[in-house]
Amino acid sequence: MTRLILATRNTGKITELRSILTEAGLPHDLVGADTYPDIPDVKETGVTFAENALLKAHALARATGLPAVADDSGLCVDVLGGAPGIFSARWSGTHGDDKANLDLLLAQLSDIADEHRGAFFACAAALALPDGTERVVEGRLMGTLRHTPAGTNGFGYDPILQPEDETRTCAELSPAEKNAISHRGKAFRALVPVVRELLG
Questions:
Q1: Regarding predicted confidence, which is higher, 9 or 1?
Q2: Buried b / exposed e across 102-122, counting CB within 10 Å, b at 16+?
């Protein structure tokens, strides 16, 4: 059984990818970065989601000698030319302050009419092998931005993105409902044939 390492300490992400691989009949031993605590965190210096995912995957593959998967994701707003994009987690200037990021974005869009509030969550997922082989796939969750947050599930910008064909925000969906349509879920599922091709 090939061991595969996912560049995250988020148990939810590990569980999600593990279940996707299992459903596809790929019996890989998937572990998170916590399994190798001495590996330093990688600075996300890329200018695209794909570049950041590849940076993390290659660093992990080099450090462990194992095939590595990494992802990078964020919110892309049409009228902001795709921003906050790779800066989604630090849009307000402080990394990971969800409320400040959300409040700033809503303030910036306060006078934007409903028909111009298109946005999507994007996720790039990369697989890198120790020999330098790499592949990147992407997933998107298209939607529109609400004027006020709704829902308590999820995190980040989930309370303001209303997916296409849905009357609720991502934060009002159950975890199972969200995983079924999420950008990360789509990207991880798109990785299945890549894993099959490169790892068997």
A1: 9
A2: beebbeebeeeeeeebebbbb
